[in-house]
Amino acid sequence: MDRGVSAEDGSIRLPVDELRRLSESYGSATIFEPQSGIENRDSGNGDFLSPTLPAARAPEKKLTLFALRVAIFEKAATGLGALGFIWATVVLLGGFAITLDKTDFWFITIILLIEGTRICSRSHELEWQHQATWSIADARIKSFRALRSSSHFIVEIVKALFRSITRVRKQSPHGREIRENPDAARNWDGRRKLSRTWTSSDVPILPYAQWVFLSRNVSKYLCWLQLASASACVVLSLMKLIKHNYGEIEEGDTDKRNLKAALNIFYSLALAEALLFLMEKAYWEWKVSYCKLLEEVRKECDLELSGSVSIRRFLYDAYSMCVEGSIFDGLKMDMVTFAMDLLASNSADEQLIGARVLCQFTMNPRFSDDTLQKIGTNISVIERLVEILNWKDPQEEEIRRSAAEMLSKLAGKKQNSLRVAGIPGALESISSLLQTNRTFSTTADEIGEKTIFRDHAHYGFWTFNQLGLLILKKLARDHDNCGKIGNTRGLLPKIIDFTHAEERLLKDENVTPSQILTVKSSLQLVKMLASTIGTTGNHLRREISEMVFTVSNIRDILRHGEKHPMLQKLGIEILTSLALEEDATERIGGAGGVLKELFNIFFSQRIPENQNHVRIASGEALAMLALESRRNCLRILKLRVLERLVGALEVPLLRVNAARILRNLCTYSGADCFDQLKGITAAVPTVLNAVMSEENKLQEVMVGLAAEAFKFMTSQESNTMFNGAGIKEAELANKILQILKRYQNPSVKVPRIRRFSIELAIWMMQNNAANVRTFKDLGLEKELEWVLESTAEVENFNIFSGTFGLSRHSTTIHSLVETAMQLLEDR
User: Fold this and answer.
1) Could you tell me if 71 and 327 are in contact, meaning their C-beta atoms sit under 8 angstroms apart?
2) What radius of gyration do the chain's Cα atoms show?
3) What is the mean pLDDT of residues 567-574?
4) What residues are paired with 438 via a beta bridge?
5) Which residue of 314, 447, 467, 722 has the lowest C-beta tally within 10 Å?
């Protein structure tokens, strides 16, 4: 049975495991350090930079070679037949017409007539064979051996003749009536659709005995006629060549002197031509029926049983080209070009044949690269595929699904994705795959109810939803395409609607995998759009955050999605990206329960170790939401999580993000929250130990937290903390110098470590005058001078969108260096 075809209802569905294989997983990069936009979107995906595989041998070469060999037989036979015809008409009938024996005259005449009939029928046989393959459901062109073995063939013809004659009725005065197509797929409600055109393979040539004279049967009759003609020619020629009874030639009769030789030549030509034709037929039957050439090629092409029609049609076309033109013309054919030509046809059956072949070759790893290259360089084919996405007739479900699958693979190549998105109306066509609608509301104070189409008995809506999201995900890897997606009318609301997951769906262990997969794909797509860099990214983040269901849908996933940590992680990463916009940060923080759910995930002990990435992502989101947002800082303080955040500094998995959150709370909560933040001083010993012993990212965030946490202590309290931690201030000062010496140039991995180190040094000198002398002796002034000469813009930002800096520090690193230099000079 064909892949994705249901035997029960005739609908076409893509298996969930195959959708999982097609679906992409996208890694995230932290926004607290600059990242290359190319690395983020391209290098993380194998489809964009897939390794070059060795070229696979094209199975259809066997067919084109076979067509060439058969065409050689055919052209040789036709050439001999033409020579024999000329010899008979010019030499025999022209030169010896009066002197020919009566039997020879009639033998020559009969041979010419039957050979003419054979050649004429041969010239039209391929046309009828093509017509016979137009009906995919009924195309079963039987071989000579199969026809010969049918003991009831003649009986059926006779019965059909009499049955049709007895049922003759008056015909309509109109030339052609609209008939019901028996092979048409049913409507969603089960009713058949009427076809306004004939299917060529079902055309009744005559009003009587319609079964006999259907066009798909005519090629069989022509084949039998040729075999009978050739056999008769062999018999007649052999009879004359064996007996040599050419009549008596009287001695001295110069008119008949060369008659015997002329007749021998003619009968020899006729015999050779007929034998060549029979050899051609025998060779055809041996390769096709005995060696199963068509079946062998079909299996090598990995086509389903329905692909037999495609293979047979390809062979006929290759043979036609070899016969009608040069014998080498057929060698230029290949299955991909053949399928693309059929896809551009106006015949629904030919379109389906082409779509099936192209889809199978596109999905096959052996042929995928070559097929995608040919499709990608043919704009007309891409436009055709995009056009097919708008075909919503249930009868065209399979071809629409095939077009969507091909575009999903095509969009995996960067250059092809640009071509697809560049076609006018392409994104609108892709949007038509997403079957979700909201009812129109007549009043401005309410929103229409959302409706997501579920799989109908005869139509797989979920399959098209998933394929549409998959195509959009692959297109969204390109920055320009993200902007086009955002500007496509009605597309973003559809995508956001698919991110909604009800509590029952998230908690049900027996939920349909396709539903979870659709939610996951939509979240991945929203994440990609929200993480777009530059002006386009700013616009998309505003658009996404202004949609009233975005944050609430993600909140529901955070609240009820403990069984689906991947969905939670994607939702959290979307919130992190949206928080790059100030207004979005306020919307997220103001949405009831979002901050609480993020902290629940961040502190949760029930999450397995292999899913700890969800806890890390929630910490990054909380740090982002607290950044430069006094309101969110106040909301966090109201949740009474300060003590737990201090405790999280001891947990290796959480301490980096816990330090970020605490620093942002200290920096942006405001002076009126001094008493609430006083408890942060309990973290100072842990922070100092981390500064002295750790490196890289952890050291950076701990130095930054220390510079802020010490501001909540008096000089006496800080001395107590140093003593409690077993660290002297001189040791900390020396560590700061080591950091500045190690990072003599800004680092993209820890872009703020020099800034935080200078801030901590400034506090130490302001808190204790003795530290000024310590820093002077250690050579801080020299290091600060080098910082001035090597500073870069990357050190002036809190966060980054790709290589774009966002959230600029209120104090530049130059100002910090000048302040530190002033302290060194004044004291």
Assistant:
1) yes
2) 41
3) 94
4) 450
5) 447
